[in-house]
Amino acid sequence: MSPQISVLLGVAAAYLLGGFPTGVVVGKVLHNRDICKLGSGNPGAINVWRVFGFKWAVLVILLDVGKGWLAAGWLPKVALAEPVPLVAALFGLSAMMGHIWSPYIRFSGGKGVAAAFGCGLALYPTAALICLALWFVIVALTRYSSVASLTACACYPAAVYWKSEPGFPEIVVSLIIPLLLLFTHRSNLRRLWAGEELKIGHQNQSVK
């Protein structure tokens, strides 16, 4: 099989992997409830936390991070004998898009933050950990997950450039990721502007 075909298949596989609706599966299997019809309607970890509780949110986060890490860190090794950073970045980006526009739930999905972090761990782990630390600092100061996520993602390209020596294509991908997350958080930005954004720990609806 030619490298080009292998890369195309890898991109498709990463998209399908990223699209696995973790929050939906956790809600259906463990609570027999549809997370997309509860709380904010988002299947991501923050809504899972508000609806089902903290421990289930942690499970969703770990699985979503794992999707990004597998797509960017493992799939390239399967697709190519000698994977290059750009291919890994494309696979990770494809997994993020799958997470955001999941083919399993009518092309809806989460915000993509956890998948992006997993992708970052596989590509530039030090930069990803710097952004994670920044996320915790912003959350501690504001209690807004959306503000913390957007701030950390905005700093990701600078952290990548500072802690590694990426080529131009990898820099472009590192810029696309925060732009993509800015797009997925557009409703959060509107709620922040209106003073209606929920803080972490605010319960929409609890499931006992």
Quick structural overview:
The protein is mainly alpha-helical. The chain has ten helices and no strands.
Number of strands: 0
What's the main sheet like? none
Q: What is the rounded Rg?
A: 17 Å
Task: Give the CA-CA distance, first to last residue.
Answer: 51 Å
Unreliable spans:
none
The share of residues in helices is: over 70%
The best one-word shape is globular
- Hey, roughly how much beta strand do the residues contain? under 5%
Mean pLDDT, nearest integer?
Answer: 89
User: What is the count of DSSP helices, taking H or I runs of 4+ residues?
Assistant: 10
Total of domains: 1
Elements, N to C (H/E): HHHHHHHHHH
Helix/strand structural class: mainly alpha
Structural commentary:
By secondary structure, this protein is mainly α. The protein has one domain (3-194). Helices cover 72% and strands 0% of the residues. The protein is built from ten helices and no strands. It has helices at residues 3-18, 22-31, 45-52, 54-79, 85-100, 113-123, 125-142, 145-163, 168-184, 186-194. The longest helix is centred in the N-terminal third of the chain and has 26 residues, at 54-79. The model has no long low-confidence stretch (mean pLDDT 89).
